[in-house]
């Protein structure tokens, strides 16, 4: 049986509430939409639970497992530590000859006869092996004296050296009473004060004197 009311006209037949003469009151709500979001800093949030790796099971016999990871290896210092006093001895090591230097064939030796010869001014005189041993015993050599210029130890005869040799000769050859001479060597660093003192010790040893040296 067909309906007497058209389905399209049905919404028009339903009575609607009238809004005339009614007032709508607005009630403010205390709900804040911003509260739905978290304002807690990320640093204060609880950390997510860690995934358990599961129980460690020993690998079956005959199977090989691959372990990927950085292995912590301690690097051992295998260098030998210097012994007590070894660095100081190496620093104060004195080389009195240079095997790579050209040997001077006509080099004269420092002797008792030529300690004040004016003709030798500006020349280099060598030190004999027994004299080197005596100077080494009283610690007359210094690392800064530059003994590695020649194949064997040699010293330069300067004007001051010849004046010192003349003074030593006058002290030993004078017929009068022995006298004491005191001299102070003054000069800048590297001017040759220690070499001058070594030459004075050499002259005294050549004359047979008893030498007392107080090294640094």
Describe this structure as you would to a colleague.
The protein has 5 helices and 2 strands, in the order ααβαβαα. The protein has helices at residues 10-13, 86-91, 129-137, 159-173, 193-206, and strands spanning 124-126, 154-156. It has a two-stranded antiparallel sheet. The longest helix has 15 residues, at 159-173. It starts with 9 loop residues before the first helix and ends in a 10-residue tail after the last helix.
Strand content: under 5%
- What is the strand arrangement across the widest sheet? 1-2
- Summed over residues and divided by their number, the pLDDT gives a mean of 77
- Pick out the low-confidence regions: none
C-alpha-based Rg, rounded: 53 Å
H-E string: HHEHEHH
| Number of DSSP E strands | 2
Fraction of helical residues: 10-25%
> What distance lies between the first and last C-alpha atoms, to the nearest angstrom?
138 Å
Helix segment tally: 5
Q: What's the main sheet like?
A: 2 strands, antiparallel
* Broad shape: elongated
Question: Which structural class matches the secondary elements?
Answer: mainly alpha
